[in-house]
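Each field is set out underneath.
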Amino acid sequence: ILESISGEEVASTLRAIHPGLKSIYVVEETVGEYRTMVLRHLWGEKKEYAEAREYGLIFRVPLGRAYYNPRLAEEHHRIAEVTRDGEVVLDMFCGVGGFSIHIASLRDAFVVANDKNPEAYKHVVINIKLNSRRLKGVIYPLNHDALNLPNIVEGEVFDRIIANNPTRSLDFTPVYRHLLRRGGVLHLYVLSSDIATTYDIIQEKLSDFSIEGHRLVLEHSPRTGVFRVDLVKR
């Protein structure tokens, strides 16, 4: 975005459009196993935290230290809408709690919100408290490597699993098998430039699941996107 114009020009334009801005950062890339964003400060106060709002919900976000993508607000709400009261849900890579808090705000569900990143876990706890008056369901936060969850949770107990880790979601297929009940739904997020080929890979790795469909969630580049593939365990 900033290849042809300077950061100063970007900051000046944004300040003219949004005069109430206090800080401006640009996201340069997402890195590491915790999927943290590398941010470059362009203008204003340097901050450790930001506050985001989605559908009236509040999220405290530690800048550059835990995963959060404001472009997923619609997707968070969309998954919450398809979840039913009484479901037991696993948000395997929850970041600061986007999917989990949306679900619990709309449904009387039990949601396990897991993230390996201690900073993400800390902020899930904070964000549960910030939204406590809006929650109909219960959120139980965990701070574990997702691969270790079968050693912590016994049996096929989940009605729905959200696997929002697009570059690595297919590395956790044994976990989905172990924890999702028959007839349960897996929302598998994948980064793909060819969804037909990705279907073939998914069907090979999850042959005991049936693919119900897919949706383009985010455009990642002109030729690749983040897709949600919905599967049901047979």
Summary: The mean pLDDT is 95. The two ends are 45 Å apart (CA to CA). The first strand starts at residue 23 and ends at 31. The chain is about 25% helix and 35% strand.
